[in-house]
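Task: complex structure prediction.
Instruction: return structure tokens for all chains below.
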Amino acid sequence: QSALTQPASVSGSPGQSITISCTGTSSDVGGYDFVSWYQQHPGKVPKLMIYEVSNRPSGVPDRFSGSKSGNTASLTISGLQAEDESDYYCSSYTSSNTLLFGGGTELTVL
Amino acid sequence: QVHLQESGPGLVKPSETLSLTCTVSGGSTSTYYWSWIRQPPGKGLEWIGYIYYSGSTNSNPSLKSRVTISLDTSKNQFSLKLRSVTAADTAVYYCAIGQYNLRSWGLGTLVTVSS
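Output:
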């Protein structure tokens, strides 16, 4: 199984909004509403930010939102803050009852 | 709040078996799904596999022939064995709760494969 496709890097200025895409196939992203997003600061443990496409765990700011259209899921961060600078990974359940991660996106806050 | 902690050797020789244990506190391994994920240095996350409390498992097709995941509910632990390791298996290994929503993760343990 090939990794889900994410842009290697995105950037934005404080206060702006950015969107990170995650593209798969109809056998994973497009076929199930089981897409998650994780934030990982350097040297730290990944943190679940969005689950089941658009749900936020308790404690995650509402600046983080998720959506999906067809085979592509998206993570949007609005009102960008310096602390949002991190790596972000998407994941999706697959038709093989497995889990597939994206390659990761490095977010730089300018 | 469920806490997980990985333990095991930090150095494994090529061709040998990597063995890690994840100890769970604040929750019971008699329920839910328990997963292993790894991250090679400087690279992205790779799903290894999961075990359900019933004992059923599934793993990454690319690793399936070398992976065994088991559960010991009496100790509230689950384990990973990865056979015939090579340098490409050098990574930080994480355990986590969940099947596709990985809500809580251990701190991770670096395993280096080297002679």
